[in-house]
What we know:
4 copies of one chain form a homotetramer.
Chain A: H1 7-19, E1 23-28, E2 33-38, H2 47-50, E3 79-80, E4 86-87, E5 93-97, H3 104-117, E6 121-123, H4 140-153, E7 157-161, H5 165-171, E8 177-180, H6 188-196, E9 201-204, H7 211-222, E10 229-233, H8 251-258, E11 263-265, H9 267-271, H10 274-286, E12 291-295, H11 313-329
Helix pairs in contact in A: 3-4, 6-7, 10-11
Amino acid sequence: MQERATEEQIDAVIDAMVEVGLSVHRTTGAIQSILAGVGPTANVDLSKFEVLPGVLNVLRISSPYKLAGRAFRPEGSVIEFANGVKVGGAKVAVMAGPCSIESREQMFQTAERVKAIGASFLRGGAFKPRSSPYSFQGMGIPGLQMMHEAARAHGLLTVSEVMEISQIEEMLPYVDLFQVGARNMQNFNLLRELGQARKPVLLKRGIAATIEELLLSCEYIMAGGNYNVILCERGIRTYETATRNTMDISAIPVIHKLSHLPIVADPSHGTGRRDMVAPMARAAVAAGADAILVEVHPNADKAASDAAQTLYLEQFDELMGQLRVIATAVGRTM
Amino acid sequence: MQERATEEQIDAVIDAMVEVGLSVHRTTGAIQSILAGVGPTANVDLSKFEVLPGVLNVLRISSPYKLAGRAFRPEGSVIEFANGVKVGGAKVAVMAGPCSIESREQMFQTAERVKAIGASFLRGGAFKPRSSPYSFQGMGIPGLQMMHEAARAHGLLTVSEVMEISQIEEMLPYVDLFQVGARNMQNFNLLRELGQARKPVLLKRGIAATIEELLLSCEYIMAGGNYNVILCERGIRTYETATRNTMDISAIPVIHKLSHLPIVADPSHGTGRRDMVAPMARAAVAAGADAILVEVHPNADKAASDAAQTLYLEQFDELMGQLRVIATAVGRTM
Amino acid sequence: MQERATEEQIDAVIDAMVEVGLSVHRTTGAIQSILAGVGPTANVDLSKFEVLPGVLNVLRISSPYKLAGRAFRPEGSVIEFANGVKVGGAKVAVMAGPCSIESREQMFQTAERVKAIGASFLRGGAFKPRSSPYSFQGMGIPGLQMMHEAARAHGLLTVSEVMEISQIEEMLPYVDLFQVGARNMQNFNLLRELGQARKPVLLKRGIAATIEELLLSCEYIMAGGNYNVILCERGIRTYETATRNTMDISAIPVIHKLSHLPIVADPSHGTGRRDMVAPMARAAVAAGADAILVEVHPNADKAASDAAQTLYLEQFDELMGQLRVIATAVGRTM
Amino acid sequence: MQERATEEQIDAVIDAMVEVGLSVHRTTGAIQSILAGVGPTANVDLSKFEVLPGVLNVLRISSPYKLAGRAFRPEGSVIEFANGVKVGGAKVAVMAGPCSIESREQMFQTAERVKAIGASFLRGGAFKPRSSPYSFQGMGIPGLQMMHEAARAHGLLTVSEVMEISQIEEMLPYVDLFQVGARNMQNFNLLRELGQARKPVLLKRGIAATIEELLLSCEYIMAGGNYNVILCERGIRTYETATRNTMDISAIPVIHKLSHLPIVADPSHGTGRRDMVAPMARAAVAAGADAILVEVHPNADKAASDAAQTLYLEQFDELMGQLRVIATAVGRTM
């Protein structure tokens, strides 16, 4: 409460707190009074109290997320896939592939090469609404089928972005890991539906989302019973314009402290530039990332989308060599 | 080009520019060469050039939006509604109402009062996916029906948020102005569909969106033939934590310079606090806003959502008195 | 404390709290324990506790500033100058003049005109280290003498920036209000010295400073006994690049809530563009600013510095007409 | 120019460009005209043109810094110290020590240990104006003497922060590398003086400074003839509050592309938390940092300042083991 708060004001705040189901502890200090509310606050809108007369400040002591919090599984979560591949374990997983699925040949060629280089997931986008009305919109479900075939032919898992609830069902046969893009991080309807899906979800951090908001979004998926969530750092918006986004590498150790969920780093979107992908991928593994997600293309310069941030296969190969060394420095394999 | 760029590098960049349909002008200076590309660049991904060897920097000279740009209609756009109400003209329009539609009584009571105080639009949300799975989800279409009846009974227009393509059709009979929320500012599929709708659209700026990105999003709506777009500033995310968002009042004159479209200010979401709504509404009108959008509720403390930022009706009345004076200072009425 | 915190960890934190002089209240909840420390915390570095094992989060309940806080003078501070001019009272004060003092003629011409238009302070910079080694460095003390003469000849007060401790003494005879620039907001040695000066201080917010940090900087001045501090909002750095800075108009009502000190708005630096100065000056007064600080020049296009953001005198005159109307809307004069 | 720009407006802009010494090339397109100015623009204030009637946008094509730019020394700079230690070469340098110099014993103890663990620089602050008026202000020159003795006794170099011009001369005998703090990154007077000093300078990036601004600040030092500048990334201010600052790891490869100067990473200030220092130090070396600067203390919990971000010596030892492995992954030693 403010130093000048009157007894009436304090009583009114206590009443408001009791009304939402909190028990209230009052500490009357020499200078000001403090009211502590104990009880279930996850659904309480704290700003309601902030505008009451006499209130100086409202702070939430307990974290607003529960299922995603470290305390829920102190030992950490390992997401296990059908073929035995794990994300969150000692081995750092690698997800690689083009931004967009363009053709059967492209996907088979990519799958063969990324598998040989060390990836365990094949990535590729089937829905590309971002582009202008006149440009390539993605290959849709037929594209996913191609990706799935190419992946299975080479013992890879698949990861692809889901953008609408209606796509979940039709993507299900072809996708091992549903990706939720940064723009949908707070599309709560979509998250809730994915909570019902029996496949793991890779949730990307929004470019203006705090780590707390990212973990809150997880709750929507986990509340539905789907605990297989992998988080993804892919850059946040800052005042710096030298890079498209500022990849927040420190989010990796912070999330490991706050949550039990694995975290993957996406240096391709995090930087937007091919020449920055390798340094940031190395930084992410050095900081403890559980997996990396990189855009590669057998003919990177001709990629239908995101060409500038797509690695040549030789660059990817070289990068993997570096990452294997770095992984050993943090007690992991790759 | 970089100062050290070789002739081969320069030639390769010229080739890449020609390939996307640009004609290239080369200036060879004492220190470095500059390549200027002239032609249709709206669909060209500039970052493609940025990663070519020898390139220092790629800059877009012409603005990437056309239909939303000031040059398209130098005199400015005025959006006219069926009952003669205009947004973008000499009179500053007022849109007021609760965050959520809660009951018929609430909407009729609100409509009567806000009309009397000077509003010409009744606002109210019917879909509230933001809330937790266990809390109020909004009244949906029946709620919109109530709002529409209440509005018509008092000569008001209606504005309400559309969140999914599937809602457009069913909302159409009840809504005079479709609102697109900040989180959907880059939901390009939704924007494209609204380009086909024959009703005006109020497009809110995302909390991490630049003004340029906001205008680019307009292109999606306008490309479909729907030129009746109203922009909305509602706060951006910055490092400052004293307010929920930082309302970017300067966006108002900037948008008036760059675009012909009217702009409305939303001080309720821009600040998140009732005691900041009036100062920021006044600031917005003083800076030239074409309309304001405020949350009011006949019983603000008990509002089902956003209670902390909702004005009491008496506060709204007092605010309107101040705004009328300010409007005259900028050559407008209210 | 974290949910998994052990009794040993909790005891260790309690010991650390007691060691810095706090009395500790422990609340043991179903899920987690909370430790509340009561006592003088202004000099306690809270991050020290944050890294102790078992600690989830450390929050400061009481505000870290005292003298600048609203509670210190709930009725608000009015800074009174020798000639009876007040900042913080019912009349909104106006400070106007060129960025740099360039000549005696320039200052007399400016003084005459700004006085006639309604200013009560003449501004002008004497030290300009910002410029390159080869460009204009400011006229120094002789310039201040000119400004002072011109101001006194027209019944104006003077305000000018002090950049180093060594300048305080020599500026004293010529300056009625010491300005501390945004880059020096956390130059604590300078602030401390100004706490000893018997002249008011105008403290500009740093472009990356929170409002809390601005108020903490005030403490350095006020702790020395100089309570005559005026705060200044001049734009913060955000991701938006359409304006040089984002002028945080909401800082005005926020500061009025948190502090008793008056606040002045500087729309010239806040926007960096002449065509944005008037809208933002109007917004600032509408939001409750106690004064405005604008750059004007009898020959704005030829100004030695900051030409782009400097108003023509006719623009200033027109702006003042608008501001007078707006002032009445918020119960003030101008 | 804007699409609606008149011939008079275009001519006026051309005149203004010629006046500042540029030769102007005009391209008249179907939609708009473009004016290109060629000539020395380093001292030209571009915003001057931005506010001229008819101007849409002003862009600087050539980089505003020259001496710090990569083209000045494409092969990269290596800063060599008296004892043969190099920063910028194949070996990643390590700078370690306490935030504040507290006692002779502390410095000798630290010097011995950090040397044994692998550091080549001993760091320590002698001036601490940040603290409140009542707390520890730093030991000043006597402290630097102690640090220098301790360093020399163990074959280490010294690095310490200089805060005012007057300190340069007196620090000179004791300091091998002058550190300029983040708050002084744009204290141009100080930078200019350091340009005259015959000792290398470590320039920290301000928390709200762009990479371009950091390189511009270098020009002030280098213009004086002192080319021995080392840059330092230590975290920028973003909206994320989970860490004190967001350490911009991507600044490391960006600076290596734009500049020939070496870059050191400071994970202690970059994170503010002991448990984040090691992950971010590893990330920095993995991303290509030329040196790291870490706070260590023989009794970290009792450090007089910055205790929370100070490593225990055992942690530093363990970290160095990891860094040596990572260095090999990027073709370096440590």
